[in-house]
Specification:
74% helix; mainly alpha
Length: 106
């Protein structure tokens, strides 16, 4: 729901005072940089950023699911985007490892 719609709802205890999810911007940028760094060979730093992003996203999504009216939807979308980028970066890292194993075994 958009902020305007939530403000118009009667008896909305959070009308006009919704807040951002904890670490929403941090999750987004760690997922983004983790994705970028996992494209490069041997990028263990990207894997660390992805791990941190996924752990923080799990906490943020749980908080949102417990009380969705308390948080802004834009903040939730930012967390979901960061989590998606982290999963894509993890897939790139796994493909890189598989390619490395395939290259060294042949």
């Amino acid at each position: 729901m958009n902020q305007e719609i939530l403000d118009q709802l009667p008896n909305n205890e959070y009308a006009g005072k919704q807040e951002d999810l904890i670490n929403d911007t941090s999750i987004f940028y760690k997922g983004l940089f983790g994705l970028i760094l996992c494209i490069f060979p041997g990028a263990i730093i990207g894997l660390v950023l992805i791990k941190i992003s996924l752990e923080q996203a799990k906490v943020a999504v749980t908080s949102y699911q417990e009380d969705p009216g308390k948080f802004r939807i834009e903040s939730y979308k930012k967390v979901k985007s960061g989590r998606t980028m982290a999963y894509i970066g993890l897939a790139f890292f796994i493909l890189e490892i598989l390619a490395l194993v395939g290259y060294t075994s042949s």
